[in-house]
Amino acid sequence: MELLKELPRPERFFRKLTRGTLPLLVWAAHFAACYVLVAFQCSPAGFAPGNPHRLPLAVMTLVALAACAALAWRARGTLAGGDEHTALLDWAAAGTAVLAFIGIAWTSVPLWFVESCG
Q1: What b/e string do you get for 2-39 counting C-beta neighbours within 10 Å, with b at 16 or more?
Q2: What pLDDT digit, counting tens, does each position of 44-68 carry?
Q3: Per UniProt, which keywords does this protein have (predicted)?
Q4: For the whole model, what pTM was predicted?
Q5: In the chain, helix, strand, coil percent, each to 5?
Q6: d(CA 63, CA 65)
Q7: d(CA 90, CA 117)
Q8: Please, are residues 40 and 46 in contact by the beta-carbon 8 Å criterion?
């Protein structure tokens, strides 16, 4: 019984994996949602044939940017009190949040220049 008490707790791998990659998942979801929405708007049977509407794209972009900014702010709080023993996961969470924020801003640029579906 003493051996069982001394064993370390499991690492919770998927929780840590999600924490480190969640901003990249937000970026991927934003990318897919924007391009699916534009494709759906531009299809002949779409809900708004003709020119794609930019308001839903702007809302999705702002929500994704806000999510990445919140994740970066959360990671900043962890890193602010960090020292040389700060875990790699903390640095990865902060770095992917910044990377995803820049990626969302960059991949949304072509959406603002779409004039028509044709």
Answers
A1: eeeeeeeeeeeeeeeeebbebbeebbeebeebbeebbe
A2: 776 666 667 788 889 999 999 999 9
A3: Membrane, Transmembrane, Transmembrane helix
A4: 0.78
A5: 75, 0, 25
A6: 5
A7: 43
A8: yes
CA-based angle 89:79:29, to the nearest 5?
55
* pLDDT score recorded for residue 86: 61
Distance CA 32, CA 27 (A): 9
CA distance 35 to 13: 32
Structure tokens at 53: 């509407």
Q: Report the residue count for the chain.
A: 118
Closest CA to 24 of 93, 110, 106: 93
Q: Say how far apart CA 74 and CA 94 lie, in whole Å.
A: 8
Q: Are 51 and 117 in contact (CB under 8 A)?
A: yes
Residue with tokens 């999705």: 60
* Three-class DSSP category at 8: coil
CA dihedral 81, 83, 86, 91 (to 10 degrees): 80
